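dumping this here before i forget
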Amino acid sequence: MVWGHDKSAGEDLVQIPSGQLVRVNPPGSKVLKELLFRDAALSVRKTNVPHNYQLIVTRVYEEGEDELGDSGEDDDELSFLIDEVLSFRRTTVGFKDHTLFWMNPMDDSKQTAYEFLPTSSTTDTTISTVELVVYQCMFERRSGKDHRDASDEEIEAYIKFLKASAASAATKLTRESGKHATASPVTQPANRAISTSKSTAAKTKTQATPATPATPIQKSSAKQPKSVDTPASTTSSSSVYDSPAGEAQQPLTPINQIQ
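structure:
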C-alpha cells in the first residue's frame, strides 16, 4: 500500500463506508458497551502537520435526516490523532473477525475504548488496507519521515512492535473486566437517526476535501467534528521500540499545533 506525497491536508487516504461505532465503558459500568453511531463511516485523514494523521468516524444519515435531527453539531463526527497511545488493533467481537478497536486517548485510566464494526459487505481487503495505513501513519508520526523512505523490514518490525503493544493493552483491559461479574449488552442511543445512504462528511480543523483511493467518498454538508486528540504528554520516548538503523528519533508535534 503506497500513499503520502500526493495527498493534501484534509484529504482522506482510505475509508470504510459503512459500519457501527461502539463505546466500550470501564469495567463495572452499568452499561458496558454503548452504541454511539448506528450507521457510520471510518476514514484516515491527513492533517496539515507533516507526518500526522487522524482517524475519523462520521455518522451516516439518510437523505434529509441530518436536518431533522436534534443532536448537537459536535455529535456527528469524532476524530482521533493517530498515535501509538491508541493501541489500535484488529480484533474479534462475537463471530466478526474484522472489528477495529482502539483505546480512548483522553482516559487516563486506560479502561475505555472504541470499536468500529464494519458491515458484512466490507471486504477483508478493505479492512486490511485500513489497518496497514493506520500503522504506517503511526510510523510516520514516530519517525518523522515518510513511510516510503523506510525499508520493508523496518516497517514490518515496527508493525510487529505495535501489535505486541496492543495485545498487551488488551490483556490488561480483559483482566480488569474479569474482576466484574456482570456485563450488559450494547445499549442503543435513543432518538438517533438510522440510515446508510448518505454520509455527513464533516469538515475538520484540517479543512478536509474528501478523496480516498480505497473507496469513493461523497461530499455533503459539513459539520465541525468533535476532536478526541492524544494527550500532549504522549511522546515517542515512552515506547520500547528503537529507531531503526540507529537514527535519532524526531520530536513529536505538540497536539495543540495540529489543526
